[in-house]
Amino acid sequence: MNIRLLALIALMLMLAGCAAKPQGPETVRQALFGLGERAAEQLASASPLPKPHADLVVLLATPEVDPALGITSESLMESLTRALLGLEAGPQVLDWRSAIAGDAGGNQWRLDSRLTASGPRLTLSDRELLPYRLTLNLRRPGQDASHWQSHIDGALDASAL
To answer: Domain of 118: which CATH number?
Structure first.
């Protein structure tokens, strides 16, 4: 009985040691995954959007990305697209281009986004963090006026970029 108890304690200590190691994101996709989800959740709760969201078409414009962050606009676009499509009963998502600007249906909304560095790199003992601000701007296609705007502040793990 004592051997089983010792083996169980040893196993628990090993698992606790594994869980205690900080696990940062290993790829750009993982690093941006949480950011995309937060953006999609904020957009889903945006007041100007009619419900149900399944009837909406979000025209996702190519994001503006600060080169100091080392992220491509394509990577952020993928993250935002995946997160929006992952919403339960979420909207349809299309890649917006100026060539498709024209008479928009009543169910279409354009989402512009801008990711900027909001401060210098933060050096920790095991990694560097890049503070950011993601600005989301929702408007009707063909209009300049914003119907909703939101900001998400955080930091990305530089080792994943």
So the answer is: 3.40.50
